[in-house]
Amino acid sequence: MRYLPHTEAEILQMLGEIGVATIDDLFDTIPAGARLNRPLNLPKPLSELELRNHLRDLSRRNAHGEDWAMFLGGGSYSHYIPSAVSYLISRGEFLTAYTPYQPEVSQGTLQAIFEYQTMMAEILGMEVANASQYDASTGTSEAVRLALSFTERRRVLVARSVHPEYREVLKTYLKNEDVSLEEIPYTSQGTIDRAVFQTLLGSDVACVLAGTPNFFGVVEDLSDVSKRIHAEGGLFITVTQDPLALGLFQSPGEMGADIAVAEGQSFGNSMSFGGPGLGVFAAKKEFVRSMPGRLIGETVDAEGKRGFVLTLATREQHIRRERATSNICTNVSLCALAATITLALWGKRGFQELAHTNFDRSEELKERLLKINGVSLPFSGTTFNEFVVRTRVKPTDLVARLVGDRTIPGIPLWRWYPELPDAMLVCVTEMNTDEQIDKLIAGLKKLL
Amino acid sequence: MNFPEDLKYSKEHEWVRVSGNIATIGISDYAQDQLGEIVFVELPDEGEEFEKDDAFGVVESVKSVNDIYAPLTGRIVEVNDPVVDSPEIVNEDPYAEGWLVKIEVSDPKELGELMSAKEYEAYIKEESE
Amino acid sequence: MTSSKGRGYQFEESLLFELSREGRTGYSFPERSGAKRTPSSNLLRKAHARLPELSEPEVIRHFTRLSQWNFSIDTNFYPLGSCTMKYNPRVNEEVARYTGFAHVHPYQPEETVQGCLQLMAELELYLAEIAGMDAVTLQPAAGAHGELTGIFLIRALLGARGNPRKKILIPDSAHGTNPATSSMANYEIVPVRTGKEGRVPTSVIEQAMTEDVAAIMITNPNTLGLFEADIRKIAEIVHAKGGLVYGDGANMNALMGKARPGDLGVDVLQYNLHKTFTTPHGGGGPGSGPVAVKKELEPYLPTPRTVLKDGIYRLESNRPQSIGRVKAFYGNFGMLVRAYTYIREMGPQGLKRATELAVLNANYVCARLKDAYHLPFESGQMHEVVFSDKKQKEKGVTTMDVAKRLMDYGFAPPTIYFPLVVFGSIMIEPTETESKETIDRFCDAMISIAKEAQDDPDLLHKAPHNTKMRRLDEAKAARELKLRFNFS
Hints:
CATH superfamily of the largest domain in chain A: Type I PLP-dependent aspartate aminotransferase-like (Major domain)
Number of domains of chain A: 2
Strand content of chain A: 5-15%
Radius of gyration of chain B: 13 Å
Number of helices of chain A: 14
Number of helices of chain B: 4
CATH superfamily of chain B: RNA polymerase II/Efflux pump adaptor protein, barrel-sandwich hybrid domain
Distance between the termini of chain A: 59 Å
Structural class of chain A: alpha/beta
Radius of gyration of chain A: 25 Å
Number of domains of chain B: 1
Oligomer: heterotrimer
CATH topology of the largest domain in chain A: Aspartate Aminotransferase, domain 2
CATH architecture of the largest domain in chain A: 3-Layer(aba) Sandwich
Shape of chain A: globular
Helix content of chain A: 25-40%
CATH class of the largest domain in chain A: Alpha Beta
Order of helices and strands of chain B: EEEHEEEEEHHEH
Shape of chain B: globular
Strand content of chain B: 25-35%
CATH class of chain B: Mainly Beta
């Protein structure tokens, strides 16, 4: 077997040195009654050639954006990944390295993630960022947990326009706590209902959680929300599904966020059927000792040369154990590296330009869609990349019928928002070609 | 290891120097040695009150975080701010410059429950076995 | 064997922000066609992100140089105990990048992702079979996430039975994520002391197990590399009082095809795909932490579940007893593809052989080093072995010094100061993908260092000498927090 170097001769030598007769003797420590006495019931082994054929078959049973016209967003985005990224992250020194606990031999990972932390703090407009959480859904839950323990309060206000699956995860995480999760509805502009928010506010609210842009793609200035929660001594937490939006729109930091979470998958990581993601977690300096996750800091070595190390590890599970800020150990370092490389290639101007391009394309698609009879826009707010449309024919029917034409027009919202049975979330990025967009328009015209 | 005779010591490795009804509190030479290089100290505010054995602050090194416990009941009257900016002072001079807080003692009888330098030294020896 | 001084090129490399030059670009986008639009000014960003500006060749060179400062499995032996640093097969990488996996959106209609769903359904079956369990969820993104999911499941089941209880028993040899997880799930931790033989005595469990205890979290083999031979008795004790047994599956590399936690009384177990199943560590993730459960916990598994209905795979969310989601979408699919590919390549005999050779390698290390280093537990090592610095301490040399000196010999240090039950512990897990010569070279280095500890302790105190950086000042990093580049 190609991953197992031992020859029979070597095995015998080793057994001799150990002082046992067979390998089975080494398993004597497992009592007889505890041993498995049959082979594992698994398919027989495949050679590399057979493996690739089998996996290719499986992969061919999935539609994908290169062959199909897909307009799907909702927390997972198709953006261009520069060719250089896969070559760099495939380097064995990055791919097969361990967590950088021994800094003297991990400076590559440490410096790269220090650069990542800087970039994320810049993009979100915050003071510090950690080395990553699993994704935005768990990052959001950790942010709320931080707010609860920091303020020692019991109420959490969550905008209904925050990604429904992020809200589900939050519910799971807080189910066993004596915490009240309360929802703030959205308005006809797709923005936060300030009137209801005002009635819910109080000095017992730990935090308010809002999306920017939100799940409907709507962007709004949340500075007033920020001011109001701060006046009550609570925290303002934002979550950004596609942080490419921040190449154009106000950053959470500019709005006064205390903690800003984002889904960084858009930066150089493929969608991969929803995982792995990249949980960006940034905050104001004052929360640094309460933050979850790894942090990389700058220091010097014994010769005075600049270097980087994991720092403030006393917050983490391997030292603090039951009093750790979080149980997180493995995060998504390689995804963070892919993001860093991508943003280094896009650069300051590319980041802004790509954001503009995406905005233009979605505005243009919006206009073209509205020209179709039977399509309307339920939310009047400004959007980035994705937006909600209402269709005369039920969105699930539209999807079912367009699938035959290798087109997926959007994500029907009814399963998360039963109050929006005719609504669909349509996303367009720089990856959608003009032909694909024409195809979508033509397809919808025929059905509506 | 140094344990000044004129101080009293608690089981949680704090020392106490009493002058009138004001007690100065810090952590012992043994404590700072065990912790290693101290990187962060969190101290309470003036005016805060603590019962004996309450945790009133935190001392953090690279490899561990430890609560500091009040050896006596009282009210904080002074906090050693320089130590917050330069935590290494606690390592370098735990009994003088590295003091942490001064409290107004509520119950002088509690002093009797603390250990002398000799008792503390014996206590440490026992603990490490 | 003498220490190897680095030769060849080891470049200095500044930060991206220091290399940045205004006007340089590394991107290639099509021209913006159509009308250029601007949103309303009150929504526009005022202070733009100060991302660096570099050309593509500079970016390639930057990260190539950075990579050359890293130690990795591809470079040399990485004997970290409890991490299972085995070879990461390249076919896994290739397959995970197939367009039909990488460019698939999670919200595509089910009939357009049958390949993904089939892979997940089959992987669940394989993982259930290997652990001897009944059902699996692939949703957790890492081991700790899997632990949290598992404890949530336990709470849900016990809650449905009338009382979720308040405590969890955790051996003092446990990985730090165990108590951290229990705390996050709002359980009080009751530490259980490891006995003199390195295992948890059943008498201790008897005493600790009450009707207020929801579960015991147990790693088997434990973090000392020893099989908890009394696991079935322990499970009996816990079950008798209505509790559940949580198995931390981090050490599954010692058991594949030889024993199954599910047959030994474990009710719920998390896997670490980035350990046992070769998905790459990537410098700290992404990982994947699927959770396998016994039948009675199945109704509580996170939604959605992959089910086969009339020949079509579907994602089923209508499960009223489920604990809910623990993550958006379905799990780290990219890592699931890699683990699946590995299992399909190895087959049942390959996985068993991997376990056998992992245990052989660890026992060989033990035999070669037990004279030079103190071995707290004389026998019973499975896939990893724990030594201590007791012999070296006589000359004032510590585990830290040994670890730092190993780097001068070109090896990554093993896990140090964990588990906490052994002072100055050195935990070595060779894994099965290392050849005898590599292990011999490692043992030779360790023996040489032991001699240096006798003859020249100061050399070790100042180690490492030959790495890119000398010992780094971690206290300074914590005192003067610099967590990002400062532009001013």
